[in-house]
Design goal:
mainly beta, 18% strand, two-stranded antiparallel ribbon, globular
Length: 101
């Protein structure tokens, strides 16, 4: 059984799918976070929130260039931006380092 989703598609839009296929993909461990640099202005694609009514906005990036993700309405210190990472790229027991500006 296969389930796929067209993310951020508008409501009430019809889709026609033709000649679809599914193939295994190789993992790029340098790309565990998708859209980590927020390359598309105004688009927080792949980012979600963790906890309560947290909101996300795209703002001017560090140093005045590029884009950054702003989390607001954070009722608890553990609430903020979230993203599901590709667990196929991680082996049990490995440790990950997170870095951001």
């Amino acid at each position: 059984r296969v389930f796929w989703e067209l993310e951020r598609a508008p409501d009430n839009v019809e889709f026609i799918v033709d000649n679809a296929s599914i193939k295994p993909v190789t993992c790029d461990p340098d790309m565990l976070l998708k859209n980590g640099k927020l390359e598309d202005a105004g688009v927080s694609k792949y980012w979600d929130t963790w906890g309560g009514e947290v909101g996300l906005d795209i703002v001017t990036g560090y140093g005045g260039s590029g884009n950054a993700l702003k989390a607001f309405k954070r009722p608890h210190l553990s609430h903020g931006p979230a993203q599901i990472i590709d667990m196929d790229c991680i082996n049990a027991g490995e440790r990950l380092a997170f870095q951001a500006k």
